């Protein structure tokens, strides 16, 4: 009886696997060793520091959720969405497979909660729930993603999903390049708010019932790493778009289509470290337009907010203010007042004496 049950289970699993495989569209494998493509760039200047097969088409897998994040944050910035706005979970979101936070149609979550789930857990169900809430359907949201890619100049990128999973039969696979993803990541790097989502390693969900853990191991292994995201499915391979900041310099490293996760991470770490070793520390310009003083200086030199730009004064003419300078000015004012009063009184008495002399003469 046990043998029969075991054989029956094996048959069932085999049939399920064949059915699942039949439901997938034929797809060319792009994953290779050590990776299909890579790009390293200076986030501030856009300078390309390393490039290998950067224009070869690859499958972004879950890294495309970075575009989902950006589309939604743009709407929040425009005021058409609020981070505390509640999202009703749909049956379509509930049925999504792969990485998820197990959303239920009976539940509601804020947009911000679902953005954390999207970035930390790479939750496909959260991606679908957000897309439907924002655009009315997954398909309508994909249109927004492609419009944004076109606006950015991502010429070799086409999105067909909001989650990055391999396509089902009759669907097309998401396609991008390391070059295009570099453009997207530079746009993301200018948005300080994205780092709280992409830089979080662990976070509670559903009141602590579910603990989300980031797939981006560089967050704990690389000094200064605070984002962005990983992605994977078999034919796409392991991909990562990572960023780190040290000494005022922000570097972005993109590794796409590696057959091995550890190799992908090792290559990304190596690229980041080499980039930082070859770029000198950079002062950060944090003066706002309202605070800025029109001072002529070299374009490559940034002035920190704490510094004050003043004219050069010869040492012999410098006046060094002290804490007592206020009291000195106060007593000097009194002294000047007394001198003026004494002068006035002197001339008053002199005039009176002159008049007295004249009256005596008359």
- CATH topology (fold) name: Beta-lactamase
The separation of the N and C termini measures: 152 Å
Strand content: 5-15%
Could you list the spans in which at least 5 consecutive residues all have pLDDT below 50?
4-22, 285-329, 354-362
CATH architecture: 3-Layer(aba) Sandwich
Main sheet properties: 5 strands, antiparallel
| Total beta strand runs | 9
- Summed up, the domain count is 1
Keywords:
single chain, 362 residues, alpha+beta, Beta-lactamase, 5-stranded antiparallel beta sheet, disordered C terminus
Structure in words:
With 362 residues, the protein is α+β, with helices and mostly antiparallel strands. It has a single domain (25-278), classed as 3-Layer(aba) Sandwich (Beta-lactamase). 42% of the residues lie in helices and 15% in strands. It contains 11 helices and 9 strands. The strands form 3 sheets. The chain has a 5-stranded antiparallel beta sheet, with helices on both faces. Strand 5 and strand 6 form a beta hairpin. Helix 5 packs across helix 6. The longest helix has 37 residues, at 325-361. The chain is globular. The N and C termini lie far apart (152 Å). Mean pLDDT is 81; it is low at 4-22, 285-329 and 354-362.
Q: Care to give the gist of this entry?
A:
The chain is 42% helix and 15% strand. It has 362 residues and is of the alpha+beta class. The protein is globular, with a radius of gyration of 34 Å.
Topology, please?
Elements: H1 2-22, E1 37-42, E2 48-52, H2 65-78, E3 86-88, H3 91-94, E4 108-110, H4 111-121, H5 124-135, H6 138-152, H7 178-189, H8 194-198, E5 202-205, E6 210-213, H9 218-221, E7 225-233, E8 237-246, E9 249-258, H10 261-278, H11 325-361
Helix pairs in contact: 4-5, 5-6
